[in-house]
Amino acid sequence: MVSDPITIDSSLNVQDAQEIMRSWGVRHLPVVENGQLVGVLSDRDIYRAISIKKTHDLSVREAMSKKPFVVSSTQTLSYVAKSMAKHKYGCVVVKGSNGSVRGIFTTTDALFILSQLLEYPDDEKFRVMSMDEYLASYQQLSA
Fold first, then answer.
1. CA separation for the pair 66, 114 (Å, rounded)
2. Positive or negative: CA dihedral 132, 133, 137, 138
3. Nearest alpha-carbon partner for 105 in 65, 62, 75
4. Per the CB 3.0–4.6 Å rule, which of 35, 91, 102, 104 could disulfide with 96?
5. What is the 3-state secondary structure (H, E, C) of the chain?
């Protein structure tokens, strides 16, 4: 999970957002207005919007997903992974107790956890871990 992810403003041009994605090596960007989450922009959203509008001159607001999947940082990994699979979500925005964007959890993160479960099948910690606990241990796990 990326903690304190890069966020963008909804008025940004999609070309600029796409460049941010490229430079940071990410496929999803939380979109905020006045510090509040209003959507998520994915590389897929950009391609879809450009193919429909036939122009690159679009704002993030026009291309973003306006109802992203959002969970509390206390939510369990199992709930998040199950929901992502069921609804085919590419990412989940994780909000902290104060309502701020705390992180973004993607299908890549879910695959990393699956690899850990397959490699260490007797390790129970992932089965009950909250997003907060995962975030706290992620640096140790990925090293």
1. 29
2. negative
3. 75
4. 102
5. CEECCCCEECCCEHHHHHHHHHHHCCCEEEEEECCEEEEEEEHHHHHHHHHHHCCCCCEHHHHCECCCCEEECCCEHHHHHHHHHHHCCCEEEEECCCCCEEEEEEHHHHHHHHHHHHHCCCCCHHHHCEHHHHHHHHHHHHC
CATH of the domain at 87: 3.10.580.10
Euclidean distance between CA atoms 37 and 99, whole angstroms: 9
Cα–Cα–Cα angle for 37, 41, 76, nearest 5°?
Answer: 60
Report d(CA 130, CA 104) in Å as an integer: 14
Q: How far apart are the first and last CA of the chain?
A: 14
Q: What's the confidence (pLDDT) of residue 19?
A: 95
11-33 pLDDT, tens digit each: 999 999 999 999 999 999 999 99
**Domain range for 104:** 2-142
The CA-CA-CA angle for residues 19, 141, 28, to 5°, reads: 20
Domain count within the chain: 1
How many C-beta atoms surround the C-beta of residue 38 within 10 A? 17
